[in-house]
């Protein structure tokens, strides 16, 4: 298993922290050395090479989202993988930093040989023509972008229902809230088992200390907090390794109980 960096995003702190308790969040930001302008979440793509399959979890931002992201092709070439070698792409969800990378600079599918796997709830939501009207102004570009990128790969798309094995050794688990069909994946690779959590745990600064705090970056904030809280509790109890898409590269580690909350322990 390799973690391939797509670069990082640049986001105002309010994108995630808006609406959280003000005094506590100011203290937390100071403790972590964060400024209001300055979150720079990493984008960690998981690559699994298993027999004749090369499986990529999410594809990153592509050339049209942010200058600081869309670096996956360079990162793949560093480990001698060509985009055409990827046999399967598995999506956690259809936000820009996870799906816009399906198209290259010329708007052609970058992973030309891949079959794409996405949960039914996720594709149904983003391909519904009403979504762009109901999602709210702040996320309208996300809706248009998801519909456009999904349409570009529709001939190679496979829909799955979660809570089952979708590829050999890969189990899909519904973790909705960040988006309606957000999915995490348990990967059993020989002796190792780990969870690709995507954005179900989207920010390591606050999510472990205060998993129940509603994150502004979650579309359904209450459901996102519920999914995150139960996921973190389970990961801590079972001592399961996880990969966080937006955690400091490579984003692999464990969750441990700490005081009334939890803490992230990089592996
Ligand atoms: Zn993301």
Characterization of the model:
With 267 residues, the chain is of the alpha/beta class. The chain has one domain (2-266): Metallo-beta-lactamase, Chain A. The chain contains eight helices and 13 strands. A seven-stranded mixed sheet has the order 7-8-9-10-11-12-13. A six-stranded mixed sheet has the order 1-2-3-4-5-6. A hairpin with a 2-residue loop joins strand 2 and strand 3 (53-57). The two termini are 14 Å apart. Zinc ion (ZN) is lined by residues 95, 97-98, 199, 245-246.
Q: What's a quick, concise take on this entry?
A:
The chain is built from eight helices and 13 strands. With 267 residues, the protein is an alpha/beta fold.
Provide key terms for this protein.
seven-stranded mixed sheet, 13 strands, six-stranded mixed sheet, Metallo-beta-lactamase, Chain A, single chain, alpha/beta, binds zinc ion, 267 residues, 25% helix
What is the name of the CATH architecture? 4-Layer Sandwich
| Number of extended strands | 13
CATH topology: Metallo-beta-lactamase, Chain A
The tally of domains stands at: 1
**Sequence stretches where pLDDT stays below 50 over 5 or more residues:** none
Bound molecules: zinc ion
Distance between the termini: 14 Å
The biggest beta sheet is recorded as: 7 strands, mixed
Q: Bin the strand percentage.
A: 25-35%
Average of per-residue pLDDT values: 95
Order of helices and strands: EHHEEHEHEHHHEEEEEHEEE
Please state the CA-atom Rg, rounded to the nearest Å. Answer: 17 Å
- Strand arrangement within the widest β-sheet reads 7-8-9-10-11-12-13
- Give the class-level CATH name: Alpha Beta
Given the helix and strand composition, which structural class is it? Answer: alpha/beta
* Multimeric status of the protein: single chain
Tell me roughly what share of residues is in helical segments: 25-40%
The geometry reads as globular
CATH superfamily: Ribonuclease Z/Hydroxyacylglutathione hydrolase-like
């Amino acid at each position: 298993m390799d973690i391939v960096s797509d670069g990082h995003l640049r986001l105002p702190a309010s994108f995630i922290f808006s609406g959280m308790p003000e005094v506590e969040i100011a203290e937390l930001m100071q403790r972590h050395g964060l400024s209001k302008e300055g979150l720079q979440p990493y984008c960690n793509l998981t690559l699994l090479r298993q027999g004749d399959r090369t499986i990529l979890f999410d594809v990153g931002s592509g050339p049209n989202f942010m200058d600081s992201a869309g670096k996956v092709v360079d990162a793949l070439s560093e480990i001698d993988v060509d985009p055409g070698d990827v046999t399967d792409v598995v999506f956690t969800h259809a936000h820009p930093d996870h799906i816009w990378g399906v198209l290259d600079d010329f708007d052609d599918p970058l992973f030309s040989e891949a079959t794409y796997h996405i949960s039914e709830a996720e594709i149904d939501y983003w391909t519904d023509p009403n979504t762009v009207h109901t999602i709210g102004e702040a996320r309208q570009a996300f809706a248009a972008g998801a519909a456009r990128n999904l349409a570009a790969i529709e001939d190679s798309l496979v829909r799955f229902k979660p809570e089952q094995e979708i590829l050999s050794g890969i189990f899909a688990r519904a973790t909705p809230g960040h988006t309606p069909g957000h999915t995490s994946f348990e990967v059993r690779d020989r002796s190792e088992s780990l969870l690709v959590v995507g954005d179900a745990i989207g920010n390591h600064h606050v999510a472990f200390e205060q998993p129940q705090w509603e994150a502004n970056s979650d579309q359904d904030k209450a459901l996102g907090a519920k999914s995150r809280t139960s996921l973190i509790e389970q990961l801590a109890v079972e001592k399961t390794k996880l990969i966080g898409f937006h955690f400091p590269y490579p984003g692999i580690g464990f969750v441990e109980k700490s005081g009334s909350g939890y803490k992230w322990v990089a592996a």
